Amino acid sequence: MTSILDAVRQQLGPDAIQQMSGALGADPAATSGAVSLALPAILAGLSHNASQPQGAVALDTALDAHDGSILGNLGGILGGGGGIGGAILGHIFGNRRGTVEQKVGHGSGLNAAQVAQLMAMLAPIVMGVLGRMKQSKQLDANQLPDVLQHSREQGEKEIPGLGGLLDANNDGHVADDVLRMGTSALGGMFGKKG
Predict the structure, then answer these.
(1) Residues 6+ apart with CB under 8 A from 160
(2) Among 25, 41, 52, 60, which residue's CB has the most CB atoms within a 10 Å radius?
(3) What gap in Å lies between CA 120 and CA 124, rounded to an integer?
(4) d(CA 105, CA 116)
(5) What is the 3-state secondary structure (H, E, C) of the chain?
(6) How far apart are CA 153 and CA 145, in angstroms?
């Protein structure tokens, strides 16, 4: 099964990184570094939420509205028009959203406004990819946790030690632990862009 991370990577080639950089007013290398932190954090947050039956059902229901059609208008999202992204991030991270954005900024060098905008661009893309995968693979609330776990396992293969760090402080939140690893480790996971 294609991982969500691989499917999102296919949507975000060098041209997409360049377009995001332009919208953010940031250097492409810094944007790529921020993406390499933000994507695993978003997926880790989704995986954590879906690990509980109630969270998996909520995600399954939300994906009915994210059928992948948004991927046909990446230009609008990457140009800074990711208005729905903020709402998605709120559902994924709750009151920890600001903390996650702050850590992405610290690891990448982007400022708080740039990180918030970047993550708001990425969130609908991740949901669109996952929604398209749900439709094409006939996934339901029972299968979504496994699909998200598959992406986590891929990260563990690409970055030795990732599994033990996903919730290193045992607080039940994996996103902060992924971000604590820093850009250098996650750069290999996403690959060089720009």
Answers:
(1) none
(2) 41
(3) 7
(4) 9
(5) CCCHHHHHHHHCCHHHHHHHHHHHCCCHHHHHHHHHHHHHHHHHHHHHHHCCHHHHHHHHHHCCCCCCHHHHHHHHHHCCCCHHHHHHHHHHHHHHHHHHHHHHHHHHCCCHHHHHHHHHHHHHHHHHHHHHHHHHHCCCCCCHHHHHHHHHHHHHHHCCCHHHHCCCCCCCCCHHHHHHCCHHHHHHHHCCCC
(6) 12
Low-confidence ranges of the chain (pLDDT < 50): 159-168, 170, 178, 181-194
The rounded distance, in Å, linking the Cα atoms of 77 and 141 is 27
pLDDT at 80: 59
Enter the pTM of the model.
Answer: 0.81
